[in-house]
């Protein structure tokens, strides 16, 4: 390219190398991928159904801006649902049918066991849909161990009859046919907007095609177990106002769980929560429109003294307790976010 047409951008090099751990908990083994300096505060992630950290969060963490914001402020602990680990790294195997299916409470307790394994006290949490439910439940059961929640298309109520029956249909599909094309189509509709999924005239987006390929690695028996756990979830709405942490919620306007996110936002303490709606986006905002998350997340983390680039005023191991922050910083206005939903649209012109 001619030098007159080129642009030089100085971007600090971010290391995305991580290490996979298989941790034996009191409720079975779980895979955790650790990225970053373990002397820094912890950010725990949990993905949606049939996804793992590669297929649910790499779009967000591969953004240079997100790397600057998150990877410099936190050590990332990415928990995979049991049996959902990255196959080509650890060789995921089918969980024996003799082992009882874990409940959502078991999965939340498993998160606590992971924190104990790594010697972590209070952590920030980032979850997507089913993973958002698990981390919210974890925050209710272990309030002192969560300093903040960032939730993407979250769930908080028990499944409606429609969702329950649909999930039973998916369960039968997995049991008899495995991760077949129809099952993948159903999951893609759960994750992505119509624009990303394409149609007869417009092909699927690259991110959807990549997700289809990654779904081939999932073992249907393991996905079935996680689906059964999520389909057996219970309503945790009554405990939302008792949460002792600030909460930032993202939801795509095309998400099947859009109304769930609105309901959850209405039940949280409005002083310590905010909702961001993302236009032309499905449930997995972290993959479809990760750039839409950056500015709200940056303002949210400023309330904890975290900035981009990282500027710690004290030891990185010091707890980021909201009680150490002046009260005015705990308001949604201090995040730069209005209480009513913010509509965002991200377009890149090259």
Automatic annotation (TrEMBL):
Taxon lineage: Eukaryota, Viridiplantae, Streptophyta, Embryophyta, Tracheophyta
Family as reported in the entry's similarity comment: Belongs to the NDRG family.
InterPro entries for this protein: AB_hydrolase_fold (IPR029058), NDRG (IPR004142)
Keywords: Membrane, Transmembrane, Transmembrane helix
A Pfam family that the UniProt record links to this protein: Ndr
Organism for this UniProt entry: Cinnamomum micranthum f. kanehirae
Top-level taxon of the source organism: Eukaryota
Protein name: Pollen-specific protein SF21-like protein
Annotated TM spans: 117-140
């Amino acid at each position: 390219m001619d030098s007159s047409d080129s642009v030089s951008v100085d971007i600090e090099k971010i290391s995305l190398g991580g290490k996979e751990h298989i941790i034996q908990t009191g409720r079975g083994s779980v895979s955790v991928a650790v990225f970053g300096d373990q002397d820094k505060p912890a950010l725990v992630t949990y993905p949606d159904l049939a996804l793992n950290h590669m297929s649910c969060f790499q779009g967000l963490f591969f953004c240079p801006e997100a790397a600057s914001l998150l990877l410099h402020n936190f050590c990332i602990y990415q928990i995979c649902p049991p049996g959902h680990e990255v196959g080509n790294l650890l060789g995921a195997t089918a969980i024996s049918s003799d082992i009882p299916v874990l409940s959502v409470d078991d999965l939340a307790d498993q998160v606590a066991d992971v924190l104990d394994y790594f010697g972590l006290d209070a952590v920030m949490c980032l979850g997507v849909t089913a993973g958002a439910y698990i981390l919210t439940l974890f925050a209710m059961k272990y309030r002192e161990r969560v300093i903040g929640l960032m939730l993407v298309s979250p769930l908080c109520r028990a499944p409606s009859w429609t969702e329950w029956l649909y999930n039973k249909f998916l369960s039968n599909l997995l049991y008899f046919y495995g991760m077949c094309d129809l099952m993948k189509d159903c999951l893609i509709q759960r994750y992505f907007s119509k624009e990303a999924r394409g149609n007869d005239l417009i092909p699927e987006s690259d991110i959807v095609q990549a997700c289809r390929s990654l779904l081939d690695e999932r073992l249907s028996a393991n996905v079935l177990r996680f689906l059964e756990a999520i389909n057996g979830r219970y309503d945790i709405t009554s405990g939302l106002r008792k949460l002792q942490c600030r909460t930032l919620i993202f939801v795509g306007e095309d998400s099947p769980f859009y109304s769930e996110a609105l309901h959850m936002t209405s039940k949280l303490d409005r002083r310590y929560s905010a909702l961001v709606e993302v236009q032309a986006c499905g449930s997995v905002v972290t993959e479809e429109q990760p750039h839409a998350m950056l500015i709200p997340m940056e303002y949210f983390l400023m309330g904890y003294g975290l900035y981009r680039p990282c500027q710690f005023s004290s030891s990185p191991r010091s707890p980021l307790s909201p009680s150490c922050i002046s009260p005015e910083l705990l308001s949604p206005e201090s995040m730069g976010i209005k209480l009513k939903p913010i509509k965002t649209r991200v377009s890149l012109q090259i």
